[in-house]
Amino acid sequence: MASTVPPESASQPAVDPVPRLTPARMPRLSAERAAGPSRASLARLYSEAENLVQPFALGGGKGRVDLGRTNLIRGLVQTFKRGGGERSLHYHSNTDSLWLVLKGRVRFHGPNDETIGDFGPQEGTIMPAYARYWFENAGEDDLEMLQVMAFHDRDRKDAGRTDL
Q1: Which of 39, 56, 130, 137 supports an S-S bond with 143, CB 3.0-4.6 Å?
Q2: CA 60: distance to chain centroid?
Q3: Whose CA is closest to 117, among 135, 129, 104, 132?
Q4: Class of domain 57-164
């Protein structure tokens, strides 16, 4: 099931009911490397991974849709109406993020409102942890962006967002 968050609360960390593979649930592959994983280990891996796969639909085309997550990576699609965006200068201490425009145009800004880049479909940027930024919908239409977050700390469930 896809979960959506209204645009007003898109900047707040969402409570994510999506199950995650944790180190305790991962197979002990080091002992199996020489011969490869057993059929039982593979069957368990297939089942756990496939339970994490979620279809999604943008519904009304507004807000945030979580695509899924593991203990190291999270994918979501964020949508913003014309004139919208994440207008608060902020950074994330626990993740690097890849941003890819699916539809519309976005303008990313850094400290002192310096323009980092203006991106259209099939374009984007990578924001390393602690890079300060904000962005706005720079087009005439709704903006849809894919965000892929790579977590630095397996045990943390949040991106470590700090608004400045």
Answers
A1: 137
A2: 20
A3: 135
A4: mainly beta
Quote the CA–CA distance of 78 and 65 in Å, as a whole number.
7
Above 90 in pLDDT, residue 36? no
**Pairwise CA distance, residues 149 & 98, whole Å:** 6
Name residue 98's amino acid.
L
Round to whole Å and give the CA distance between 27 and 39: 12
Query: Exposed (0-12), middle (13-18) or buried (19+): which is 137, by Cβ within 10 Å?
Result: buried
Residue 65 pLDDT grade (very low, low, confident, very high; cuts 50, 70, 90): confident
> What residue ranges in 2-157 does DSSP mark as E strands?
4-5, 63-69, 73-80, 85-92, 95-103, 106-109, 115-119, 124-127, 133-137, 143-151
The structural domains of the chain, with segments of one domain joined by +, span 19-53, 57-164
In this prediction, residue 54 has a pLDDT band, given cuts at 50, 70 and 90, of low
E strands, 9-69, where?
Answer: 63-69
Convert the pLDDT of each residue in 89-146 to its tens digit.
999 889 999 999 999 999 999 999 999 999 999 999 999 999 999 999 999 999 999 9
pTM of the model: 0.65
